[in-house]
Structures are given as C-alpha cells and as structure tokens.
Write a structure and sequence with these properties.
five-stranded mixed β-barrel; glycosyltransferase; about 270 residues; transferase; about 25% strand; Nucleoside_phosphorylase_d; Rossmann fold; Purine_phosphorylase
C-alpha cells in the first residue's frame, strides 16, 4: 500500500460521484440489505476500483455503494475481506483507508458472530464493547506506518463511547435486545473445536468471528470514531455442540438484519 495507490483509488471513486461521505458502513456476512435503503445510490464494483482487493466469499457481493441515508451521505461496503480468503491485513483494511480519504467522519461495522456467552441467544444483537485479537498479526505492522498515523496506537477504548451509548438508548426505545460484550476475532475459515470454545470463554470472549478487529485497529490509527454490532447467528456451547450449517447462519443473520438496519438508521439520524 502506498499513498499513490490510495490517491488513485480515491480519485476513481470521486470521478464516479462519491463526494464527501460523512459515514462509512461495513456490512458483514448475510447483512447486505441496508444497501437497498440508500437513496440516489451510485455503485462501484471492487474489481473496477484501482488497487482494491476482490471479495471471494459467495455471500459477499463486492461493491461500494454511495448515496443518502437519513439525509446524510454514506458510503457502504457490501462485502468485506478476510484473512481466510488469503488476503493480508493491509488488503483487508485498504477500503477503510480509502473511505477515510473520501471524507468519512464515523465508521459503523457489522458482522455475524457465534455466541460464546450462553446467556445470549442466536438472532440477538451484541454491541461490541471491546475485543480480543486472535488473528496473529496487525494491520499496523508494516514499514512506513508512521506516514499514516502514530505507530503505537492506544487501544484503551477502541469503540466510540458516545456512539455506543446512543445505540443502547436507541435499542431500548425500539424494544430491541442489544447485548454488550467482548468480540474475539480468529482467522478461520474452519469453525472452532469444543476445546477452542472453552478457551474463548475462559479468556473473556462473549462472541467469536473472523473479521472486524483489523478494521477497528485501522479506524483507531486514523482517529476515526468507530462502533460495531454483531448479529449472533449460532450458540457455541461446547458441551452440546452440533455441526454448524453455514446456510442456517446466513438465514439467522437475514432474520435479525432488520433490527440492525433500524439501529444504524436511527444512529445516522442522531449523529
């Protein structure tokens, strides 16, 4: 990644009409419908954007969408990148840097995750209060990182306190169950063993997934306020573990998605 590449990607999107978005949104597995609610939408497929990686997961559609939501300009990533696709941390977080260069002032992230905390149920939403990085690397561990921001980024409060509080109030007013907890990010793509689920519980994780943390680290590097919500798609009870059906995970995410869309729409309105 070079500044020249970031400039070329940004210039291409600006030439398509991506002008001064206020909010960037990353949509997770099975959570693409928010994009359908954007007014005056302009689309840019990843394979047309200079230096963008390509989404290779079949349920990630692979395009950036720009337009208006709740009277604010937004840019939405429909389809994200993962380590398990063979990308590195710079690839995964490249779009966050491009959206920041386009002008976003806030970042919303969603993902599908498994519930480690057995007080939480599949189909519920969890506000990520903190995270554990188990992906074995960092999107800031490269030569020349200091050109883009401080090398040693403080992560005492990686998720924006004000936006977290607003989401909790919105959820309460809408009658939506919004749990709060710690998200553990693993490499994947294989699901966890019973012993791994036990370990995750011991170290304090409430949910587990294969994304989000690299993007959040880069958002903090860019001093970009970020908030993230997990849709809990399965319950990871090591004592009663049934084989995971990926299609079922997508279906659960799809059913819970309207609640997440409602939360994000209200939050866009209020910030």
């Amino acid at each position: 990644m070079t500044q020249k590449q970031l400039d070329e990607s940004t210039a291409y999107l600006q030439s398509k009409g991506f002008e001064a978005p206020e909010i960037g949104i990353v949509l997770g597995t099975g959570l693409g419908k928010l994009a359908n609610e954007i007014d005056d939408a302009i689309e840019a497929h990843y394979n047309h954007i200079p230096f963008f990686p390509l989404a290779t997961v079949e349920f990630h559609s692979g395009k950036l969408i720009y337009g208006t939501l709740q009277n604010k300009k937004v840019v939405v990533m429909q389809g994200r990148f993962h380590l398990y696709e063979g990308y590195d941390f710079l690839d995964i977080t490249y779009p966050i840097r491009v959206m920041h260069q386009l002008g976003i002032k806030k970042l919303f992230i969603s993902n599908a995750a498994g519930a480690i905390n057995l007080d939480y149920s599949k189909g519920e939403l969890m506000l990520i209060d903190d995270h554990i990085n188990l992906q074995g690397g960092s999107p800031l561990a490269f030569k020349g990182v200091s050109k883009y921001g401080d090398r040693f980024v403080d992560m005492a409060e990686p998720y924006d306190v004000d936006m977290k509080e607003k989401l909790q109030k919105i959820a309460k007013s809408e009658g939506i169950i919004l749990r709060s907890g710690v998200y553990a990010s693993v490499v994947g793509p294989q699901l966890e063993t019973k012993a791994e689920y036990r370990m995750l519980k011991i170290i304090g994780a409430d949910a587990v997934g294969m994304s989000t943390v690299p993007e959040v680290i880069v958002a903090n590097h860019l001093q970009l306020p970020v908030v993230a919500v997990s849709v809990l798609t399965d319950e990871c009870d090591p004592e009663n573990l049934a084989p995971v059906n990926v299609q079922e995970i997508i279906e659960v995410a799809g059913k819970a998605e309207p609640k997440m869309v409602k939360l994000f729409r209200r939050l866009i309105e209020e910030i």
